[in-house]
Design a protein that fits this description.
695 residues; alpha/beta; membrane; single chain; TraG-D_C; P-loop_NTPase
Amino acid sequence: MFFRPKYPIEALLRPPVEFQSALAAFSIAIIMASMPGMIMMSEQMAYVGAGILVFAGLVRFNQGWQIYRYQKMLVRLPYYGMRPRKVPVSNRTLFLGLGFRWSQKHTQRLFDALEPENEKYITPSRSYRWARELEKKLDRLKVASFLIAVLSSNSRLNPFRPLPPVGGNPAIHAVGMLEGEHPVDMPLGERVGHTIVLGTTRVGKTRLAEILITQDIRRGDVVAVFDPKGDADLMMRCQIEAQRAGRPFYMFHLGFPEISARYNGIGNFSKPTEPAGRISDALPSEGNSSAFKEFAWRFANIIVQADVALGNRPSYHSVRKYVNNIEPLLMQYGKMILNKTAPEGWEKVYLQILDNLDPKTLPFSLKDRNLEAVALLKYCENTGFYDAVLDGLLGAFKYDRSYFDKIVSSLAPLLEKLTTGRAAELIAPDYGDVTDSRPIFDWLSAIRQKAVVYVGLDALSDSTVASAVGASMFADLTSVSGYLYKNGIAHGLPEMQTGGRKISIHADEFNELVGDQFIPMINKAGGSGYQVTAYTQTESDIEARIGSKSKANQIKGNFNNLIMLRVKEPTTAEILTNQLPKVRVNEIMAVTGANDSSDVDSGIDFTSKNEDRTSKREVDMIDVSTIMSLPKGQAFALIEGGQLFKIRMPMPEKEDDPNIKTEFKDIYADMVAKYTTGEGLMSRNNDWLSVARAA
C-alpha cells in the first residue's frame, strides 16, 4: 500500500474514514474542473488544482480500500487454487505455498484482532448468520430447495455465500495480507537436513505431501513414498507425475497384491547380520519381551548366515521354514562346512558315530531327533571341530523342543503373518517363477533407474505386517545409503553416468514406521543424498512408537526444518513455539478520571479527562492457541536456520492434461471405496485426479 502513513501504533481495526476525505477531494475536484469561475480561479489553475485533488483522492481511496479489504480478509481469505501441472518446479528451491515471513508486526496485528472490542471484525456479519440459520430451518422443506441453493451458492455474487469449510481462524493468515502474499520457497540445500511435518488428522498433511512429491518427481529426484494407510489419491498422484516426467514407477501395496510390485524385505543387505535385525525390529521390546527379542534376533541371524553361506537368498519363507525345523539347514550347512574345513577322513569318523548311536541312551532333548543330525553334533563334540555358524545351529538343535518353542514364541507368529496369504507373494517373492509378471525391485536398482516408488502398507488391515515391512524397507534403505556413501551410484557399472543423486523419502504417518533402524538414516544418510520428509500427528506418537523419550528426542533433533499445521496436543505445538523469540507488543489502555475543585473562588467546580495510554508487554511470537486454531491447509514453516513463515497451500483443481492416462484406474476405485479419509476442503475427494476417474 503506497503512501501509507507511519504511526507508532497501527490503527487497522476502525472505520475506513479515508473514503470520506477521498469523496471530499473528488467532489471539490469536479467543482473546480467544471465551474472554475464559481471559486474565482482561472481554467488553467483550476485544472491543475483538480488534478492535485484527484491524485490526493486516489491516494486516500487506496488507503481506505486497503483498510476495508484487510478487515474483510480477517473473516474470508481470497481463493487460492492450482492445477497439478501448474505446481512450480525449481532446481534451486522447493515451493511450499503462498505466504509471508512472520515478524513482530504480525504478532501485534493478531493481538489487536483478538481483543474483545474488535470481535466484530473477525466474526461473520449478522446477515451471514441469519442466512445460515434460515438454511437450517428450511433444510427439510422441498419447496425451499431453490432458496437454499441460492443462499448456499459459492458465487461471488452471493452476499451470503458460506465460508470455506476449513475451520480455524482465518485472521492468523490475514494479518500478513496487508502487504500481500508471495511464494514461500525452501532452498534445496536445506533439505538434506530433513523436514518434519506435524498436524492432526485431516488438516492437509497429505495435500502438502502431494505438492512436495510432485516437485521432487519433476525435478528428477529418486522418490520413495511410504503410505501406511494407503491413500488412493496420493498413489495416483505419484503414478501420474511419474508418467508426466517419463520416469519408471513401482507400486508396492500390501492391500492389492494382484497388481503390486514385489520386494524381498530381507534379501538385500550389506552385512549378513542385517536381515535378522529387520525381522526382530517388528517384535515387542518392552519389559520381559526384550529378552525374547534378543533370542529371536540371535536365532534368525544364525539361520540367515547359514542360508547365505549355502548360496541362497534369504526370505521370510526360508526363515520360517527353518524356525519350525532347523534340522535340514543344520545338515546342509554342516556337511558343506565340514567338506571345506574338516580334516580328511571326517566322513568315516562321522559314519562310525552314526552306526554306534543308540536312541535309548540319548538325552531327553535329543530323543525323536534326526539321528544324522545327532551324529553331526557328536562328531563336533568328540573332535572339537568349531565353526561359529555351525556352533549356533547345533546350540539351537540341542534345545528341548518344547523349551525352544517357548523362547521363539514371539518370532513364529510374526513370520506366520508375513508368509500367509497373497501378501506373502510380495514380501517373499519366488525368483524362479517365470509365469509371474509382477516386477521385483530393490532400492539400489530403483535409485539407479531414478524411479518413483510408492509403498502402500495397508496398516488399517494388519498393522503388524505393515510395521514389519515398513521397518525392513527403512533398514534396507539405510544399508543402501552406506553402500552409496562408500562406493557411489555407478559402482560395478562402468557405463553408467557417475555423480550423486538426490533420494527424496516421504514418510506419511511417520509414527507407524519409525523405529531404531530409522535413527542412523537421518543421522548419517545425508551424505548419500537422502532427504527425508516425515509426516505425523503428534510428538507423543513418535515417543510411543519408539518406546524411549531419549531416542524420540534424538530423532526429532535431526529434523532441521519444521512445518506445523493445526495440532491438538499442546506439547506438540511447543516444538515450534519454544524455538521462537519473545516479542514486545503495544497495549492501549483507556483512562477516564474526574476531580472536584477545592478552590471555591476559582469558578471551576470539577475537572475530567479521557486519555489512551500505551504500554509494551512481552509475549510469545506465536502461542500454542494460535497453532491450535490454524485453518485446514495452513501452516507455519520454520526453515533456513530459524526463519518463520506463514503459508497456505493451494486448493486442488481439475487435472487438465489430456496426455495423462493411468493404468491403475480400477485399483484407484477400489482404494477410494476402502479408504474414506474425511470431508471438506482438504478431503481426498478432490478434482486433482479426474483423469483417473474418467479413464
